[in-house]
Amino acid sequence: MLFAVAVAATIVLVSASPAAAHDELISSTPASGSQLSEAPAEISLTFSADVLTIGAAVIVADGAGRDWAVGEPTVQSGTVTVELGAGMPEGGYEIRWRVVSEDGHPISGLVPFTVGEAAPLTRTPAATDTPESASTDPAVAMQDQSTQEDQGVLRILLVGAGGALAATAVYALIHLIRRKKGTSS
């Protein structure tokens, strides 16, 4: 019985381990914090693995909130690209992206950059106590991501425990049936 539990737990934990790690942004063009002499024609985001074609969204916002992205982003393997409108003035910009990683989890982030000699785009936290205003704080966003990862680990452990319990039940049922056959002969 202990062998069945050990085998079931090992299979569940080994097969679930890769799903615990989400994909991440590994590079962008322009790079985070870069200061460009002229506006780029497109934005490119490269991820650690393939991302799904559904659910990809990219906004390139200026200080007034105007989105300079033109059309829908294109997704090829682990790279998301979006064209930018012509005439972007000097200023601070923010690439706001959201994609669905290969494991089906949505991931998002920000990539700030500037064009010309302008100051970087800065965010001012809202003065309300709503959860939505708190989510713009990077520390809170990181804490939310950590909570999601903790929930993923908990889910893996619960699935493993359920698998071990199911294996134990099957073993006990087989043992009971064999025992009954042995006594009825």
Structural features, described:
Helices cover 36% and strands 29% of the residues. The protein contains 3 helices and 8 strands; from the N terminus they run αββββββββαα. The chain has helices at 2-16, 131-134, 138-184; strands at 25-29, 34-36, 42-47, 57-61, 69-76, 79-84, 91-100, 106-115. The strands form 2 sheets. A 4-stranded antiparallel beta sheet has the order 1-3-6-5, with no helix packed on it. A 4-stranded mixed beta sheet has the order 2-8-7-4, with no helix packed on it. α1 packs antiparallel against α3. Residues 129-136 have low confidence and may be disordered.
How would you sum up the major sheet? 4 strands, antiparallel
Number of discrete helical segments? 3
Give the low-pLDDT segments.
Answer: 129-136
Structural class: alpha+beta
- The pLDDT mean sits at 79
Helix content: 25-40%
> Quick one: how many beta strands?
8
| Gyration radius, rounded | 25 Å
Q: State the shape.
A: rod-shaped
Tell me the distance between the termini. Answer: 25 Å
Instruction: Please indicate the percent range of residues in DSSP E strands (runs of 2 or more).
Output: 25-35%
What sequence of helices (H) and strands (E) makes up the elements?
HEEEEEEEEHH
Strands across the major sheet, in which order?
1-3-6-5
